[in-house]
Amino acid sequence: xxxxxxxxxxxxxxxxxxxxxxxxxxxxxxxxxxxxxxxxxxxxxxxxxxxxxxxxxxxxxxxxxxxxxxxxxxxxxxxxxxxxxxxxxxxxxxxxxxxxxxxxxxxxxxxxxxxxxxxxxxxxxxxxxxxxxxxxxxxxxxxxxxxxxxxxxxxxxxxxxxxxxxxxxxxxxxxxxxxxxxxxxxxxxxxxxxxxxxxxxxxxxxxxxxxxxxxxxxxxxxxxxxxxxxxxxxxx
Length: 236
Ligand code: CA
Known about the structure:
This protein has 236 residues and is an alpha/beta fold. The chain has eight helices and eleven strands. The chain folds into two domains: 114 residues, Response regulator (Rossmann fold); 98 residues, Winged helix-like DNA-binding domain superfamily/Winged helix DNA-binding domain (Arc Repressor Mutant, subunit A), CATH 1.10.10.10. The strands form three sheets. Strands 2-1-3-4-5 form a five-stranded parallel sheet, with helices on both faces. It has a four-stranded antiparallel sheet with strand order 6-7-8-9, with helices on one face. α6 crosses α8. Calcium ion binds next to loops.
C-alpha cells in the first residue's frame, strides 16, 4: 500500500486549483479536484481522500454544506476550509459544520502545506499521540467514559458524536487530569502546530463545541474547565 496521501481540492477558481495542485504534487501528494460543491461531495464519498481543502463559496453547494453533509454521513476525513475573509473564520469554527481547520485567503503556500501535513499526520496515527497507551480505555469521570480502542465517547452510556479534533482534545486533556494547559500548549500538542498566532482561538471554539456535546450544562461545565488567564483542564 502506498504511503502517498491524496488531497481533494474543492475550489471553483481554476487558478487557485492549479497552484494548489502544483504545490501539493511537488510535496508528494496525489490530488483530486472538484470545481463545485456537488462534485466535491461526490468525490469525497467515492475517492477516499486523506484530506479535503474546501472553498466556501462554490457553485451548486456551498462548502459549509458539503462539510456538514459529510459529517452527517459519518465521514471524518480532515477538512480544511478555505475562507475568503477573516469574518468567515468565526462561522467555520462556530457553526456545527464539523470542519477541522480553516485558512484565510490569500494564504501562504508554505503555511497551507504545513496545515495539510499536520492534519493528515494527526489522523494517520492509528492512535492519536494525545491518547497515550496508558489512557487505554478510560472511564474518565462521572457519567463520561472514553473508549480509546473504538474512539468512542459515552455519557451515561449514550454515544456522543465528536469530530476527530474534539475527540483528540478530550482524550488529551482527560489523560492528564487536573493539569492545566495553555491554549498555545494545546495548539502544539493536539493540533500539532509548531507555530501559533491568532489561531489560538481555534482552541477556544473547539472547547466550546466539545462542551456543548459532552457537558450536561455547557454553560456550567463539569469536565473541561477554564483556569482564567491560564488555560483549560480536565477536572476529576
Ligand atoms: Ca469560490
